[in-house]
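Subject: Interface between my chains keeps coming out wrong

I've been trying for a while to get a sensible model of this assembly. When I model each chain on its own everything looks fine, but I need the whole thing in one frame so I can look at the contacts. Pasting all components below, labels as-is. Any help appreciated, I'm running out of ideas.
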Amino acid sequence: MNTCELFSLKDRVAVITGARRGIGAAIATLMAGAGADVSISDIDVSTGELDKVAENIRQTGRRALAVKVDASLKTDWENMVNLTIKEFGKIDILVNNAGGGRGGTLLTCPEEDWDFTMNVNLKSVYLGCKIVAPYLINQKKGAIININSVESLKAVLPRSHPYAITKSAMTMITKGLARELAKSGIRVNEIAPGSIKTEMMRYVWGQPGFDERMKQFSMWGRMAEPEEIGSVAVFLASDAASWVNGATIVADGGALC
Amino acid sequence: MSLQDKISLKNKAAVVTGARKGIGAATAIMLAEAGADVALVNIHIDNVEINGVAARIRQLGRKVSIIQADVSKKQDVDAMTKQVMAEFGKIDILVNNAGTFSSSKLLESSEDEWQQVLDVNLKSVYLCSQAVSAGMMERHSGAIVNVSSIEGMRLFRDKAETYPVTKAGMHLITRGMAREMAGFNVRVNEVAPGSIRTETMKDVWKDPAVMNQMRSAPPMLRLAEPEEVASVIVFLASDAASWVTGEIIAVDGGTLC
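Reply #2:
Try treating it as a single job with all components included. I did that and got this:
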C-alpha cells in the first residue's frame, strides 16, 4: 500500500453534521477530495450554503446528500441516517461537528441557555454515536471523529461557560466509546481546534486591526483556516490512523502546549 | 489544494535517526513513498537491514544516504548534519527516533547505565534538533517529529525506571521547541507509540506471559506494526498537519484513553 492509498477514503461513506460552513464544510469537501461520498447536514438549510457544499462535493466526482438536521433531535438523526443508507448503502465515517453555545458565564446563564448548549453540543454527539454505531459495528470497521475545542482543556476565557463544559464532557464520550468499540474495529477520536477563522470566531477576527495585532502578539501571526482542521479529520478517518484510538488531537498552532 | 497534495512530501529532505529497523525503518520508507529523499542515520550501518531500507527507497526513485553516527555525541551529529547538507542541500524533516530500551530501575541502576539511557534517548534529541533547527528557521520551513512512548505518559509498572523518565523529558523538548520555532514556521510534534511489534521490545513481547498482558492492554486487542506509527509521523511531517504543533499523539490503539 503506498502513502496515498493509506490516506485515501476512496469509496467510504461519511456523515458530517453542521456542514454548511466553517470546519464542517471543510471536512466534507476534503473528505470528498480524498474519495468519500458524503452525507452533509445542517440545522439551517435556508441560506443555500449547504447546497453549495454539496455542489462542491459533486464537482470532485463524489456523491453528496444534503439533509436538514437538528442534531439534538433523535428523529432528525434517524431520518438522516435512513436517507444516507438508502442513498449510499452504508456508513464508514461519522463526524460529529455540529455545535454551538449560548450563555456567558455559568453564574448568570439562564436555564434555557444551559439546556440549549448541553443539547446541541453533547446530546447531539450521544445521539449520533448511538444511531450510527450499529452500522459501523455491523461491518466491523469504522471511524468516529468528534469535533471538540481547546476550550475543553483550559479555561481560555476568564469566565466559566457552558460551551467549555460540554466540550470537556465530550472527551469522555470519545474515550469511553474508543474502548467500547475497539473490539469491533471502530476507532473513536477527537480534534480540539483553536484559533480557527470560523463564523463562530468572527467576533474575534472580524475586529478592525485584528491582523496587525495578530502579527505582533501571536506565535504564528495568524489564525488558521478551517481546511487545516479538515486535513486532520481526513487523517483520523483514514487507515493512516489505524493505531490512533481514543486520542484528542489538539490543532491550535501550539498555543496550549 | 487537495489532501493528496497536502500529504505529499515531494522533494523534501528528511533525516531519520535509528533507521535500521522497526519504527525508524518503516518511517524512512514511508517518507520516501510520500516523495522525500531520506538520510538513514544509525550507530551500526554495516548490516543487511539498513541496506535493505536504502534499497527500498532507491526503488521508489528517491535519493538515500546511509550515515553512521552515534547521535548522543555532538561530533557525530555535526558530521552527520554536514553530510546531509552536502548531499541534499537542506533538511526539511527530522525524525528523532533513535533510542534505547532499558528496564533498569532508577534506584538500582549504575551511574553509567543512567548516563547511557539519558544520552541515547534525550541528549540525542537535543543535539539533532539543535543541529538542524537553525537551517529550518532560516528557510522558514520545517517539521520535527520526536518518537517517545506511552511509558512517558503514565506509569505501567510500580517502580521508577530510567527509560520512562527520558520519554517524559522529551515532552518538554517537543513543547518548548514548538513554541520557540512557531514564528519561523517550524512545527515540532511527538508520537507516543504503545504496543508496537518492534525488535527493541522483543524481549518484552516474546515472553508469552508478558505478550498476553500486552495483547490485552490495548482495547483493540492486538499488537500494531511499525508502519502504523510511521503513517502518523508522515502526517505530522506534512502540510496536512499545518496547524498541529507542540502536540503529543498517543499511537497506542487506545491503551491510554
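Reply #3:
Confirming on my end. Chain A touches chain B through 47 residues (CB under 8 Å).
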